[in-house]
Fold this sequence. Notes:
α1 (16-27) crosses α3, α9 (191-207) packs across α11 (230-237) and α11 packs across α12. α8 (162-174) links the parallel β7 and β8 (178-181). The protein contains 13 helices and eight strands. The protein has two domains: 3-181, Rossmann fold (3-Layer(aba) Sandwich); 191-287, Orthogonal Bundle (N-(1-d-carboxylethyl)-l-norvaline Dehydrogenase, domain 2), CATH 1.10.1040.10. It has helices at 16-27, 39-43, 45-58, 64-71, 80-84, 98-111, 127-130, 162-174, 191-207, 213-224, 230-237, 239-249, 258-270, and strands at residues 8-12, 31-35, 74-76, 89-92, 117-120, 140-145, 151-156, 178-181. The protein starts with 7 loop residues before the first strand and ends in a 29-residue tail after the last helix. By secondary structure, the chain is an alpha/beta fold. Residues 9-183 form the 3-hydroxyacyl-CoA dehydrogenase NAD binding domain. This is 3-hydroxyacyl-CoA dehydrogenase. The record marks 144 as: Important for catalytic activity. GO terms for molecular function: NAD+ binding; oxidoreductase activity, acting on the CH-OH group of donors, NAD or NADP as acceptor. InterPro entries: 3-OHacyl-CoA_DH, 3-OHacyl-CoA_DH_NAD-bd, 3HC_DH_C, 6-PGluconate_DH-like_C_sf, 6PGD_dom2, NAD(P)-bd_dom_sf.
Amino acid sequence: MDISEVKRIAVIGAGTMGSRISLACALHGYDVIVHDISDDALRGLEFRLQFFGYNWVQAGLTEQEAVEKSLSRIRTASDPADAAADADILIEAVSEKLDVKHKVFRQFDKLCPQRTIFVSNTSSLLTSEMETSLKRKDRFAALHFHRYKTVVDIMRGTKTSDDSVELLKQFSRSMDELPIVMKKEHPGFLHNWMFISWLEAGIWLAAGGYGAIEDIDRSWMKVHNMPYGPFGALDFVGLDVASDIGTGLEGKGHPGHWREIREFLKPYIEKGYLGVKTGRGFYTYPEPAYAQPGFLEEE
Ligand SMILES: NC(=O)c1ccc[n+]([C@@H]2O[C@H](COP(=O)([O-])OP(=O)(O)OC[C@H]3O[C@@H](n4cnc5c(N)ncnc54)[C@H](O)[C@@H]3O)[C@@H](O)[C@H]2O)c1
């Protein structure tokens, strides 16, 4: 398949990243169909698309008019067969759990046309452990999008064809994102391996009682001139997703203190304080303290 033949993208999972990816695809002219097992998630899609749209307009990445226009290219489907029909690329963005990914791949491998290329937006799982549930191993890779339109990580499976990788590079470029192809399989790609270590270091300092959450963020924000610190970033990732990512990296060589980290996140997760997506995590949204004037000057 040539990139000019790619018209329809099926996005499975309407959460944080499914929304972000859908918007990017629609902004660049693709027809997008979004499926989720949760009707609540499908109902909340519009809000999340507007949220990402607003942020990208503020960051100068697009214009409000383009965001509004792109929304008409996105539709939802609670029926998986409807989502699968005529998909050129299927982007899996469901929960970061291997068994859930396998279930989705098995289900859609049967429903999608032969030509459909499958990709996973996983943050920490390996292509070799995900591909086992797929027949189309030559048309499968990890294609990992980030919060902002910047870089897309590409990781082959054991049988991914060169044609598939080339198409995914072109697909990434068609959305003004830089494709970075891994030289070999690695959990967390390049960026996430470093990013997760940063999040984990922030939690480690708070869990050990060395500093307040706000001071840990303040310290990072001030020194690096960044709009958020590790806890602001965790709120965006989602505390449940971050905990699952840690579990995914555990035992794959990542030096993080994941057991202690999960213990620290657990009470927040149990209360439903999952971050931006639930309106409360370490901070409250839509106006978190770290984005308020004077935050960097307080003690
Ligand atoms: N949150 C981030 O910053 C971030 C960044 C890059 C990559 N990722 C990765 O993207 C993926 C999704 O993360 P997220 O933050 O969007 O999670 P999320 O919890 O916001 O959304 C996951 C969605 O998957 C749906 N889902 C679960 N099982 C399903 C199934 N069987 N069929 C259809 N839908 C199903 C859930 O209902 C939910 O709406 C994960 O693999 C995560 O590691 C996350």
